[in-house]
Design a protein that fits this description.
Helices cover 80% and strands 0% of the residues. It is mainly α. The longest helix has 38 residues.
Length: 215
């Protein structure tokens, strides 16, 4: 399958496309497509922010942000590959625990191809730049578009892992949600530990109430 055929198939016929790719996951082509999307979204985000006057916010932070845009854009571009490799590794580990039979290259291919829906943020931001709506309107539109594209990417991950690893949709969904649940659990445990450590340092509320009520 060529690049355009893979991209169109993943976006609009993902189950059948991932099933066809399962025998020989095209990691190289998946990375090329993900890089094109990553670069396009990064450049669009850069020019979208540049389109706003540096002093529009009326403070030094706005001008500083505009000046830092090139460095921030490049950092975000390269950090995507770190996230792809690390998070892809977590996904593969969980998939293996749940009985998945795919290779690491299959999981990384699915994760790279799941980034394809992000390309649709490009026309959204281009329209916002042309129309120049109020800031709150632009933020709401981008937020809604981001949520839709995120949900689309999650669905692609579930379908792709299911076909590549040859297990059920439930196991695929558990693979995708596993790292999120684990992160939430870690945050809750850390919060509980911090609260337990700070609790002895807090004043005794009953004693404080009696002290304040003393004539």
């Amino acid at each position: 399958m060529g690049l355009l055929e893979i991209a169109a198939g993943v976006l609009f016929d993902p189950a059948n496309t991932f099933r066809r790719l399962a025998a020989a996951p095209p990691l190289g082509k998946a990375l090329i497509l993900a890089t094109l999307v990553n670069g396009a979204t990064g450049l669009t985000g850069y020019f979208t922010l540049r389109a706003l006057p540096a002093g529009e916010a009326g403070d030094l932070a706005s001008a500083f942000l505009v000046g830092m845009l090139p460095a921030l854009s490049l950092t975000g571009f390269f950090l995507w590959y770190v996230k792809w490799f690390v998070y892809g590794g977590f996904l593969h580990f969980i998939a293996q625990l749940l009985g998945g039979g795919g290779r690491p290259v299959a999981t990384l291919t699915v994760y790279a191809l799941a980034a394809l829906p992000d390309v649709f943020i490009v026309p959204v931001q281009a329209i916002l730049v042309l129309l120049r709506p109020p800031e709150i309107t632009a933020s709401v539109v981008q937020g809604i578009a981001g949520l839709i594209l995120f949900a689309w990417a999650v669905i692609l991950l579930v379908l792709g892992l299911r076909e590549m690893h040859g297990f059920s949709s439930g196991h695929a969904a558990a693979t995708v949600l596993g790292p999120v649940v684990g992160a939430v659990f870690v945050v809750i445990v850390l919060f509980a530990l911090v609260l337990a450590g700070v609790a002895p340092l807090l004043p005794d509320m009953e004693a404080l109430r009696l002290y304040r009520s003393w004539p």
